[in-house]
Amino acid sequence: MKYISTRGACPPQSFADVVLTGLASDGGLFVPETVPQIGLEEINSWRGLSYEELAFRVMAPFVAGEIPDEALKGIINEAYSGFRHRAIAPLVQTSHNEWVLELFHGPTLAFKDFALQFLGHLLDYLLEQRQQKVVVMGATSGDTGSAAIEGCRRCNNIDIFILHPHQRVSEVQRRQMTTVPGDNVHNIAVEGNFDDCQNMVKASFADQSFLPRDRQLVAVNSINWARIMAQVVYYFWAALSVGGPRQQVSFSVPTGNFGDIFAGYIAHKMGLPIKRLVIATNSNDILHRCLSANDHSRHELIHSLSPSMDIMVSSNFERLLFDLHGRQGSEIQRLMSDFNTNGSFSLDPAVLVSARELFASYRVDDGQTLNTIRAEYQASEYLLDPHSAIALEAGRQSHDDKSVPMICLATAHPAKFPEAVLKAGYPHEPPLPQHLADLFEREERFDVRPNELAAVQQLITANISA
Asked: In 4, 183, 309, 461, which residue has its Cα 20 to 30 A from 91's Cα atom?
């Protein structure tokens, strides 16, 4: 299996090189040269497998022999050994043919654990094989940071630096990052928004001259293909749990950077019968505007009750655009250039029609989010976090064929966002699970830096271990 860049000017790379590189040398994102095809009979034979067994079946073709099967199985088993539910990703029925897929039973209570626990163990394996040390640099709007730190903190060959927007993540999210001990763990609070943090990461990957000569950057953001690959698994898992593959299914996905829903698209390309993928956005709705009105223009960021989705530019959307444009890297280069110059681009009408064959979209503002949390709790005593509420509301608004199961992704535990839950009328702050019960008593460690690339890079350089 080789991987190519969405911008067409980077030579094909191996799986291991893609994991350790993150961003392609031409500024594009890596995608498989060909997506593995799985027949319905084989998918059907996976019914009844454990989550770990299914993960191996789904991911092994993307690794294509670069990691021995037994080693890959070991990485997978280690990745999910710390999850607090025996099913790993349980489904809860909330209405007729409507389900919530709970993706918050990992160590940091968010869906990012599925990918980042796997990525941490994968990096540990690859770096040991190569006797190499690296610097992990990532940006987070809340959940990626804690999940990445938890996945990498025990890795001897990694120094990890996570950027988050200062005072713009929830207190629980911040503390989950800043209370993790370890000389190799560094949190940087940037006086800007998530897009500022993400732009610093992209600029640093493009020019790594600030690093010592024996180090390179590794990405943990969803630009890293291994994260997408790990997330593909739970689309198969959920579909098989509600009657697939003989039964088509639809998914509603709370969407910020487009990585999670792109994993659903890859599952569809592999052969999983998916009828609809619903892009559920909050008020930062560039993807909804693009799909519904062909308006892919940068607007001012709105700070919402669902901060993990407070993103103006969805990086992984480029991966879908690459396929929609016939995998012509020159077209993606043109679109991205237009966007960087003008702050917007429009899609060819034929491309838009093609996207709408699989994708739908729906925008849910803060008021609707609170109403959904309140109404669902009153109806069934099931408590949603704001991101999961957006998925549920968008799924309901888009569930036009009740014969097809609608699976809404619950991407975070409600205890991570007590402000929203309280505003929705819940009588008290939802308690944290036992393993995080003392979170507010733990010592925090983080550095505040201005929204300046040089200041952030200087801090990183000064803290890289020997």
From this structure: 309
